Amino acid sequence: MDVIRIEGLEIFAYHGVFPEENTLGQKFVVSAELYTDTRKAGQKDDLAESIHYGEVCVFIELYLKKHTYKLLESAAEHLAEELLLKYDSLRRIRLEIKKPWAPIRLPLEAVSVEIERAKHTAYIALGSNMGERKSYIAGAVDALAGLRGCRVRTVSDLIETPPYGVTDQADFLNGCLELETLLTPGELLRELHRIEAAAGRERTVHWGPRTLDLDIIYYDDCVIQEKDLCIPHVDMHRREFVLRPLAQIAPYRRHPVYGKTTVEMLEDVRKAGA
Question: How many other CB atoms sit within 10 Å of the CB of residue 63?
Fold first, then answer.
């Protein structure tokens, strides 16, 4: 990934814990690394194919002057998010905000906060076997698309499949979508649970009937094993109802643990069931 660097942008703004910092203001120094693809801009010698660092500098100045935060952490977090949302071609940003005049009554050059934030790719499995199944799934897609910092990139066709685990229940509609998101895995999981709850999902019977089932299949190439979160999904490589729609939108994406593509895992499942 290519990098455009902005170093030492000085801005007079109004951030700090003390009231006088919010009224009198002080100097802040901002540096940013913008990760993007500059190849087209370099080949065409065309600024429209790149990120205009002059415009970025103006945006940073106006944003930090318009908003007031107590913490540098908050100023950096919100500014990084706004820049990622503003520029489609910006994939990742490393942002540092320095405070040279920090009021601590001790000699120091500056204090600073540096963060790195990025756009991530998640694959979400969709399922429903109660009521208006298509409507529940369509509502989930719309809800995800409406989340701040999220963009639905691709949605698979829906397939009808027999129930998994507890077989004495109605057939499912299943699908999969690709999501670009600024949310962390934990934040995304909480949003999925919120969307499920809004659709009337009740977690009473494991593998039981549900109006809506949303699972994180992949999140970038992350491998996460926590009490309430396992990525990649622990059983996805054994579930044809996950792999079939996933193969439609990401056939050659490799499992970060097993190293197999979606189509290879799907073939394995079909052979095992033959």
Answer: 17
Q: Are 241 and 159 in contact (CB under 8 A)?
A: yes
Q: Please provide the size of the chain in residues.
A: 274
Give CA–CA dist 13/21, Å, rounded.
9
DSSP string, 124-180: EEEEE-SSSHHHHHHHHHHHHHTSTTEEEEEEPPPEEE--SSS-SSPPEEEEEEEEE
| Residues carrying an active site annotation | 99
DSSP per residue, 181-237: ESS-HHHHHHHHHHHHHHTT----STT---S-EEEEEEETT--EE-SS-EES-TTGG
CA gap 243, 220 in Å, rounded: 17
- Separation of alpha carbons 257 and 33, rounded Å: 31
- Which tokens go with 40? 């087209």
Q: Please state, in angstroms and rounded to a whole number, the distance separating the CA atoms of residues 251 and 215.
A: 18
Is the whole-model pTM more than 0.90? yes
pLDDT (tens, 9 = 90+) of the chain, 274 residues, equals: 999 999 999 999 999 999 999 999 999 999 999 999 999 999 999 999 999 999 999 999 999 999 999 999 999 999 999 999 999 999 999 999 999 999 988 999 999 999 999 999 999 999 998 889 999 999 999 999 999 999 999 999 999 988 776 666 788 899 999 999 999 999 999 999 999 999 886 655 555 577 899 999 999 999 999 988 999 999 899 999 999 999 999 999 999 999 999 999 999 999 987 5
